[in-house]
Amino acid sequence: MLKNLSLIALLGFAVVGVPSELSAKSVKVAGTQKGTAAKSVTRQVAQQNVTIEFYSPSIVRILKSDAGLGAPVQKKSYSVILKPQQMKDVQIQENGDIVKINSGFISVELNQQTGEIRFLSKDGKLLLTDTKTRLETRKDEANKGKYRIEQDFRLADDEAIYGLGQLRDVYMNQRGRQNIELWNHNTYIAIPYFTSEKGYGLYWDNAGKTYFNDIVASKNNSNQPSCTSFTSEVGTCADYYFMYKDGTQDGVIASIRALTGQATMFPKWAMGFWQCRERYKTSDELAGVLDKYRELKIPTDAIVQDWQYWGCDSNWNAMKFQNLYYINKVGDPAYAKYLPTDMKQMKAQGEPRLKSPEEMVKYVHKNDAHLMISIWASFGPWTEQYRELKKMNALLPFDTWPRNSGVMPYDVFNPKARNLYWKYLTHLYQMGFDAWWTDSTEPDHFEKPGDENYQTYDGSWLGVKNTFPLLHNKSIYEHQRAMKGNTKRSLQMTRSGSLGIQHYGTICWSGDVVASWNEMKNQIPSGLNFSLCGIPFWNTDLGGFFYWEFEQNPKNPAIQELQTRWMQWGTFMPLMRNHCSSPMVSELYEFGKQGDWAYDAMIKAIKLRYRLLPYIYSTAGDCVQNSGSMMRALVMDYAADKKASRLNDEYLFGRNILVKPVTDPLYTWKDKEKKGHTIYPDVRKAAAPVNVYLPKGNKWYDFWSNAQYEGGQDIQRLCPIDIMPVFIKAGTILPFGPEVQYSSEKPWDELEIRVYPGADGSFTLYEDEGDNYNYEKGKFSEIKFVWNEADRTLNIAPRKGSYKGMLQHRRFHIVMVGADSGAGDQPMQASKSVEYDGKAVKVQMKFT
Question: What is the rounded (10 degree) CA torsion for 223, 229, 234, 236?
């Protein structure tokens, strides 16, 4: 009857509350009677208290605890911020052994005899069945009074499910996966959540080490039924949330955002191109890179100061500049001890151009760029933070990075430790840094026996670790927002995540991944499954981080092809950020010069990113205002197309642009010495095909040629080095911005509005002040464009809303995309130009 019985015996667990068909008849413990406040029931089934409670019409919580404890357990949640809402239309009915509670969107049926719980849509369609819960008492001292919890579900055998976070593998559909350990580490973000192609989502609310298993029944073995399960090592009860609204993924994600918090708006500049490297070792080096980008007219909005600006490892994450080269103290014996090991042999430099970090920040801002700085969740023994945290017993005695240096992570679960973290970070905030790179938020941990039993402020490490990144980034976000006079949007880029992190100004990146084609393949489904967990902002190190598989030379043709294709993909990520590890360098000019195939193709990708900013920023606005998504796995829009919905290498960027990153080398090869070679004498003239599947139900335009295709077919798209397959859905209205060197260089007063005919369509242009929180007070504008295919009219609705600095008058250049309009990333020939002052405009286009 019990799985893993030998493991249970080994660990000394006692088993309680195992519902089965032989359970004694249920005893009613409590129940809310039908009425305006009716939204929950609690029953005792065998030895478990089972509570079913609606938080909203589309969200229901199930909580199961040991009946021997008396009343149902009151459990803390880190991710969930929604409180149960008042609802008038929840109905509770009892018929024999069946208790049914219905919200209008969801019906939940509890069988008081077997303990089985069924979830149904409002029209009676069975969505999911909760079949069994096991609470196994833990006997170890570290988790005394807690349980090992296993929760089993039954899905339809042919049902596809997605989610579980960022697992760094090629799987899109998670069915049939065994022993998936949900335990955060570098490059791996574990989220105990899955969503079904049926349009429901399930969040297993446990912050500790958890395993996911899915056994799909074999046609040849009727004795092994299908079973999908979460098993958590530590918990007080089984606790999960079932979400279903209208059968769509958008409905599920709207429920996730309601449950865990709406996404916050990033500044407009963050949607531009970021240059980053491990690492710029002096202020002058960083400023020199920005100078070169401006000189070469490579569009850029942000540059990043990585680690060791604080100095040596013993001074790790001091959150202040004590590296001699940043504070003009080279040669000063009082500061010599802070010099990082890898800088001791640096060639002597003359008088620095920028003599302080304050000058560096001002210089970057003066040159129309923004600056992000690396901060960690750990501290070296020379730092003031370390000494204060040690006094409050708020250091985690783990082996972390950098090893053998005495560095320790802090106990993020201790509220006083979180306050201390911001106290020291305030110095950099006041210096004017624009964003925080919250690195190592798993945190980095070289685990050894016994570590999992360490008692944090909130319990054993085994029971709470996975919520570390949420609390860390949430604290920074809330502290910054609380600063008097703060007008700058808090922006953190973090290496790990948890459900709900979108609510705290945070974008996750996929960690220190390897520069390789196989890794690039892994990143696409990893990002899509992560996004399906309701977290819209995600990115990767463009090109990868570790270049172990190559001769680390940007002139290596094999690296150049990989970097080019990853950069092209980055155009269609929520954030476009170039990065690499030493000794590799990845500034764009390191790959060549104008006229060289790799350089030209990468600059083309960046310029396209900037032309698409009105679309990208509006898509981000849709995420914040309407619970939208930036990277849309095809199951979101094409669940009925089984081929499309299971693809792991294509997605919609926003609601209209289909992208297929090129994830195989077409024009170069690598020898045993890791050196790259070109296959063709002139890569610029090569054009190999890439297979692209166009989902059913739409007509599609090739972005680069305007060629039209019916959906539901594979096509071979020739992909010269400067083209990645991009297709536009018929009915799309695509705003195209000016060519700029940074996001705010030119106003959007002369936008090109591209209409791709063939179906009805609409698009809402979102604009706000760009980098403050006034949008939360309604200070933003929306202009809705609606294309009517039948009468060939584009209706521009009256502008809704306003904000300081808003364009009162503008001109829209309407392009009817077709054979003679021009195509791709170049300006198109407008069919008509119209003046717009906020009032409705109707544009009649010619029939062709």
Answer: -100
* Structural Rg of the chain based on CA atoms: 28
First to last CA, the chain: 70
**What does the pLDDT look like over 512-563, one tens digit per residue?**
999 999 999 999 999 999 999 999 999 999 999 999 999 999 999 999 999 9
User: Sign of the CA dihedral 499, 501, 502, 508?
Assistant: negative
**What pairs with residue 15 in β-bridges?**
136
Global pTM reads 0.95
Look at residue 286 and give its three-state secondary structure: helix
> Using CA atoms in the order 828, 831, 837, 839, what is the torsion angle rounded to 10 degrees?
-130
Cα 837 from Cα 110, distance rounded (Å): 58
Do residues 702 and 694 make contact, with C-beta atoms less than 8 angstroms apart? no
- For residue range 619-667, list pLDDT tens digits in order: 999 999 999 999 999 999 999 999 999 999 999 999 999 999 999 999 9
337 DSSP assignment: G
Task: Print burial letters for 467-481: b (CB count within 10 Å at least 16), e (below 16).
Answer: bbbbbbbbbbbebbe
- Lookup: tokens for 817: 């995309």
- Of 327, 317, 331, which is closest to residue 382 (Cα–Cα)? 317
Residue carrying structure tokens 């890791």: 674
Only one residue has tokens 């809705």, namely: 784
**DSSP strand pairing (459-460 vs 455-456):** antiparallel
- 348 and 281 Cβ atoms separated by less than 8 Å: no
Picking from 630, 644, 493, the residue whose alpha carbon sits closest to that of residue 570 is 630
